[in-house]
Amino acid sequence: MTAITPELIAEHGLSEAEYARVLEILGREPSLVELGIFSVMWSEHCSYKSSRHWLRLLPTDGPQVICGPGENAGVVALGEGTPAVVASAVSEELPIARQNSPLAMTSV
Predict the structure, then answer these.
(1) Given pLDDT bands bounded at 50, 70 and 90, which one contains residue 107?
(2) Potential cystine with 91: which of 22, 51, 52, 63 (Cβ 3.0-4.6 Å)?
(3) Edge-to-edge strand order for the sheet containing 65-67?
(4) Got the DSSP string for the chain?
(5) What's the pLDDT tens digit per position in 32-82?
């Protein structure tokens, strides 16, 4: 069995606090496979770990919001007689997600 070391935890992109939460959830040290599962599920791609704060700042309702947050893209009206904008905000494990950029708009 592979020993779970601080280096291995860091390689999986988990902070000390996140690893402490893994221990709390499992009630024991995780296996290598379990560590990998937590790493993936808590990654930026799946959990929006670095961009969640910024996403909360966007409007979610009001006269300009045609379709608010949900499973996919949002729709926002630009003004009377103007077409609406459909935007899907995706923050992934790309360099932009690691460069203190709030969000990567890749599907506008």
Answers:
(1) very low
(2) 51
(3) 65-67, 74-77, 84-89, 105-107
(4) -----HHHHHHTT--HHHHHHHHHHHSSPPPHHHHHHHHHHTSHHHH-TTTHHHHTTS--SSTTEEE-SSSS-EEEE-STTS-EEEEEE---SSGGGGTT-S--EEE-
(5) 999 999 998 887 666 667 776 777 777 778 887 777 776 666 777 777 777
pLDDT band at 1 (very low <50, low <70, confident <90, very high): confident
Q: What six digits make up the tokens of 104? A: 């990567």
Q: Tell me how long the chain is.
A: 108
Cα–Cα distance, 13 to 30 (Å, whole number) = 15
Alpha carbons 21 and 80: distance in angstroms, whole number: 49
pTM of the model: 0.54
